[in-house]
């Protein structure tokens, strides 16, 4: 495979936290290729380095060693500002605890990355309303986060992640704070994203969430210990899964 | 464009959701800008009011009075009025310096004899009643106000009773209480106009009148040159022993300013003290929401905002507030200065336009506060990497090893308190700075108190001398500033103790879980404020005395015991204030704090 068709490519990717006795190799020489359009689930026990890996992929943290490409462009050497610009256009983050701006309305939260990227207010607003419609919250556009349920907040966060039509959406335990019904809403949303060809990396320790992916990598102590491509039939089982969950 | 809109939106949303923070900023910085704007505008406003009064009364360019020995005569003044360069004159008028009584109170006054028709030069502007008529007196407005006299009241001049028929202002003398026209003891004199005939009957050979002449000149700006010619001219008439005292309008105007001089410097110094307090208070207030602010920044950074943009948004928010505060300060000055610049009411009111100098100084002060207030959060945001920022991980604490070792020997509240104080050095510095600015005017007041014993009281028991008047104004100014600074410092102490209680809540909860009582914890939180309170007072009191000395170099330094006692009182006050938020902090249930993940 060449770098060009890959959304994400990593070689010997490492991240060391702390110094001396507190030194932890959170991510330890990981090689990873994520083709465009793939939904990748990263699983593993707590503390195995999943979040750190995601932060590295999204340029939220600087790598300690290794090489990293996003859509064929080398990004491990970029500075803080360049990484910020890159995140704006190429990455959409979804966090476990949503991280919405409490003082901005749903639609204002969704259009935030578009405005940061320099889109005109009118374009940004139109796109934000489209996205809110897509996540089923068109009627909640003017609500503040505090006036939304957890599941609704996470859907707003997902819409925000899609604001600049990013190369990859990186989600860190997106259902960790949600009840079953809300989890199913979010999974359904990811499923529809996958069908549009959106590259998606989901960190989760929830087997049900992992089961909806094209591929599951398992981590332990900062390394990949397993890499399974799920057959289409299995992933198509989301409907069954939801049937069970609901 | 999009970024600009976003920045505006973030700023507006933040202001809307935290009106208290914005309100405190506006009050604190508005007080500082107002003090500065008032301090810097007083002199200009006073000059402007004199100019308006001068225009409205056809004020003289040069006021001339004959010598006190009465040997000069009217002929000399008549010669003077015919000198080249003189374009108009009023007088000569008979003038007596005497004691008047109003409502049983005696006061010094110059009494001028006037025609019932208006003069060409110096037509006093009647603000109530009407102009002099035989048997009826007109009082200068500042003098009338000080005496509490109105039209229709009666006054006694040299033993004769006169009804007050009018009240007027003039530009031919300085403002009350400097209206003595160089006769007798000048300070503390008022001005009265009577019909000339009434004065003539009062004066006698034993009590000869002086004469006053008002001149307008071809070149009003060149009064100094003309004055020199008058001096040469009277030297040439040495045989006639002519002794003339001259006062150009510029000197009259400058004398008006004297009452205000100390207040102006006090206000300008006070403004900068207020600004320091504001920065200290706002920084501690900002520390209360540091975690939240860092999280917000992390979120923006995760969405692709550069650290520069995040800092710019922070700064822009304070800049907006600072500009509003500057506007408030200038508006307050615009409204208050006409009254403040005319303390005795001897001038016609006039609003002073804000000069570019004042606007720049006020803007600079507000800008500095905004910059310094942004600095803390901006550095904090820049220093925190995005991931820990999102996680809301608190800053690591500083534990000086020596203190921790020493702490084992001390009683529980003192040990806990010192540890708390040592944990946040920056906060301690802010608290010290805030208290120092409050201690300074307190020391100033103390110094003032030790000056009052030796004020010279001229003649009468109710009219204060120039020095007393100046000291009186200074006193008012310092009291106002001290109150403002003490209120801000008190607020500051409460906020700082509260934020100490908040971010030490886990360790204090642990201490309580292991047996520390709420009382000990309250004590610890109050004691934690002591080192910075002592430092603040130790710096602030000498600074206050020093500043007072700077404004009034003849100052008597207050005795050391009084400074120590006052300082101790301020420290005690701060500690007592600190117990209020400390008690609330110490009463929170231990289990809930330890159970929460907030750190
Ligand atoms: N900022 C940090 N400083 C020090 N150690 C860290 C930091 N972030 C994560 N770690 C450590 O790195 C390891 C991996 O953490 P993380 O990526 O959060 O794991 P996961 O998301 O799989 O639970 C853990 O041992 C964690 O303690
Ligand atoms: Mg994690």
Entry keywords:
heterodimer, A: 246 residues, Rossmann fold, 6-stranded mixed sheet, 4-stranded antiparallel sheet, B: 599 residues, 3 domains, 6-stranded mixed beta barrel, 21 helices, binds magnesium ion, transmembrane (chain B)
Gyration radius of chain B (Cα, Å) is 32 Å
N-to-C order of helices and strands of chain A = EEEHEEHEHHHEHEHEEHH
Helix content class of chain A: 25-40%
In percent, how helical is the residue content of chain B?
A: 55-70%
Strand percentage of chain A lies at: 25-35%
Offer a concise description of the structure:
Chain A is of the alpha/beta class. Chain A has helices at 50-57, 80-90, 106-116, 121-134, 150-161, 180-195, 207-210, 232-235, 238-245, and strands spanning 6-17, 24-35, 39-43, 65-70, 73-74, 91-94, 168-172, 199-203, 215-220, 223-229.
Structure description:
The complex is a heterodimer of chains A (246) and B (599). Chain A is built from nine helices and ten strands. By secondary structure, chain A is α/β, with parallel strands linked by helices. In chain A, the strands form two sheets. A six-stranded mixed beta sheet of chain A has the order 6-7-8-3-9-10, sandwiched between helices. A four-stranded antiparallel beta sheet of chain A has the order 2-1-4-5, with helices on one face. The longest helix of chain A has 16 residues, at 180-195. Mean pLDDT of chain A is 88; it is low at 242-246. Chain B is of the alpha+beta class. Chain B folds into three domains: 1-52 and 256-395, no CATH class; 68-242, no CATH class; 399-599, no CATH class. Chain B is 62% helix and 13% strand. Chain B is built from 21 helices and ten strands. Chain B has helices spanning 2-17, 19-56, 74-81, 141-147, 196-202, 223-236, 249-256, 258-288, 290-302, 307-340, 356-383, 386-391, 401-407, 412-423, 425-451, 466-503, 505-513, 518-528, 530-551, 560-586, 590-595, and strands at residues 62-66, 86-102, 105-114, 125-129, 137-140, 154-157, 160-169, 189-195, 210-217, 244-248. In chain B, a hairpin with a 2-residue loop joins strand 2 (86-102) and strand 3 (105-114). At the A-B interface, helix 2 and helix 3 of A face helix 1, helix 9, helix 10 and helix 12 of B. The complex binds adenosine-5'-diphosphate and magnesium ion (MG). The site of adenosine-5'-diphosphate (ADP) has 12 residues of chain A, from strand 2 and helix 1. Adenosine-5'-diphosphate (ADP) binds at residues 17-18, 24, 26, 44, 46-52 of chain A. Chain A: InterPro entries: AAA+_ATPase (IPR003593), ABC_transporter-like_ATP-bd (IPR003439), ABC_transporter-like_CS (IPR017871), ABC_transpr_LolD-like (IPR015854), MacB-like_ATP-bd (IPR017911), P-loop_NTPase (IPR027417). Chain A: It comes from Actinocatenispora rupis. Chain A: This is ABC transporter domain-containing protein.
């Amino acid at each position: 495979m060449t770098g060009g068709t890959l959304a994400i490519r990593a070689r010997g990717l490492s991240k060391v936290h702390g110094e001396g006795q507190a030194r932890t190799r959170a991510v330890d020489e990981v090689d990873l290729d994520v083709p465009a359009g793939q939904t990748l689930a990263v699983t593993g026990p707590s503390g195995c380095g999943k979040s750190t890996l995601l932060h590295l992929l999204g340029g939220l943290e600087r790598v300690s060693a290794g090489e990293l490409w996003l859509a064929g462009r080398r990004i491990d050497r970029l500075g803080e500002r360049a990484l910020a610009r890159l995140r704006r256009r190429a990455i959409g983050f979804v966090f476990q605890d949503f991280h919405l701006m409490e003082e901005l309305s749903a639609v204002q939260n969704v259009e935030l990355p578009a405005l940061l990227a320099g889109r005109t207010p009118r374009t940004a607003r139109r796109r934000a309303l489209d996205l809110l419609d897509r996540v089923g919250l068109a009627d909640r556009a003017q609500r503040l986060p505090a006036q939304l349920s957890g599941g609704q907040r996470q859907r707003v966060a997902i819409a925000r992640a899609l604001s600049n039509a990013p190369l990859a959406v990186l989600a860190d335990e997106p259902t960790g704070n949600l009840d079953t019904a809300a989890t199913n809403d979010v999974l359904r949303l990811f499923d529809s994203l996958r069908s549009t060809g959106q590259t998606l990396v989901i960190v989760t320790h929830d087997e049900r969430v992992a089961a909806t992916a094209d591929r599951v990598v398992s981590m332990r102590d900062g390394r990949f210990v397993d890499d399974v491509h799920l057959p289409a039939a299995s992933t198509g089982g989301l409907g069954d899964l939801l049937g069970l969950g609901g | 464009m999009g970024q600009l809109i976003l920045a505006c939106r973030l700023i507006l949303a933040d202001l809307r959701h935290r009106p208290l923070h914005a309100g405190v900023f506006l009050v604190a910085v508005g007080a500082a800008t107002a003090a500065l704007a008032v301090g810097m505008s007083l002199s200009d406003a006073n000059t402007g009011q004199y100019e308006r009064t001068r225009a409205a009364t056809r004020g003289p360019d040069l006021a001339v009075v004959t010598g006190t020995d009465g040997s000069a005569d009217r002929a000399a003044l008549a010669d003077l009025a015919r000198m080249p360069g003189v374009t108009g004159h009023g007088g000569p008028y008979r003038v007596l310096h005497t004691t008047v009584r109003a409502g049983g109170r005696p006061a010094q006054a110059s009494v001028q004899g006037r025609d019932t028709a208006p003069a060409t030069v110096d037509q006093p502007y009647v603000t109530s009643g009407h102009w002099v008529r035989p048997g009826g007196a007109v009082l200068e407005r500042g003098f009338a106000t000080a005496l509490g006299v109105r039209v229709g009241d009666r006054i006694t001049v040299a033993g004769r009773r006169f009804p007050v028929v009018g009240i007027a202002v003039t530009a031919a003398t300085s403002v009350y209480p400097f209206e003595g026209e160089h006769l007798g003891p000048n300070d503390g004199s008022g001005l009265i106009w009577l019909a000339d005939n009434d004065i003539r009957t009062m004066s006698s050979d034993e009590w000869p009148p002086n004469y006053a002449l008002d001149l307008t000149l071809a070149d009003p700006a060149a009064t100094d040159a003309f004055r020199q010619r008058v001096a040469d001219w009277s030297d040439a008439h040495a045989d006639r022993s002519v002794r003339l005292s001259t006062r150009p309008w510029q000197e009259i105007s400058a004398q008006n300013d004297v009452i205000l001089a100390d207040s102006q410097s006090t206000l300008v110094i006070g403004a900068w003290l207020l600004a320091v307090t504001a920065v200290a208070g706002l920084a501690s207030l900002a520390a209360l929401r540091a975690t939240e602010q860092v999280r917000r920044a992390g979120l923006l950074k995760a969405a692709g905002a550069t650290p520069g943009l995040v800092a710019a948004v922070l700064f822009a928010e304070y800049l907006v507030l600072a500009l509003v505060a500057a506007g408030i300060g200038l508006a307050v000055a615009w409204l208050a200065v006409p009254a403040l610049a005319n303390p005795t009411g001897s001038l016609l009111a006039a609003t002073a336009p804000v000069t570019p100098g004042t606007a720049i100084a006020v803007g600079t002060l507000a800008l500095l506060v905004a910059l310094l207030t942004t600095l803390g959060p901006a550095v904090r945001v820049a220093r925190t990497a995005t991931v820990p920022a999102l996680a809301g991980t608190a800053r690591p604490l500083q534990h000086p090893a020596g203190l921790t070792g020493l702490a084992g020997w001390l009683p529980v509240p003192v040990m806990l308190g010192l540890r708390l104080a040592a944990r946040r050095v920056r906060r301690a510095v802010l608290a010290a700075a805030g208290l120092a600015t409050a201690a300074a005017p307190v020391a100033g007041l103390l110094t003032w108190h030790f000056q009052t014993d030796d004020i010279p009281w001229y003649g009468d028991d109710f009219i204060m001398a120039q020095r007393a008047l100046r000291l009186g104004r200074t006193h008012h100014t310092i009291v106002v500033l001290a109150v403002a600074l003490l209120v801000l410092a008190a607020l500051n102490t409460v906020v700082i103790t509260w934020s100490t209680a908040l971010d030490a809540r886990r360790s204090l909860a642990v201490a309580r879980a292991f047996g520390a009582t709420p009382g000990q914890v309250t004590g610890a939180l109050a004691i934690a404020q002591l080192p910075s309170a002592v430092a603040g007072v130790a710096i602030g009191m000498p600074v206050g005395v020093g500043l007072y000395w700077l404004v009034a170099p003849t100052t008597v330094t207050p005795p050391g015991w009084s400074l120590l006692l006052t300082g101790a009182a301020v420290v005690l006050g701060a500690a007592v204030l600190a117990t209020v938020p400390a008690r609330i902090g110490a009463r929170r249930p231990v289990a809930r704090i330890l159970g929460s993940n907030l750190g």
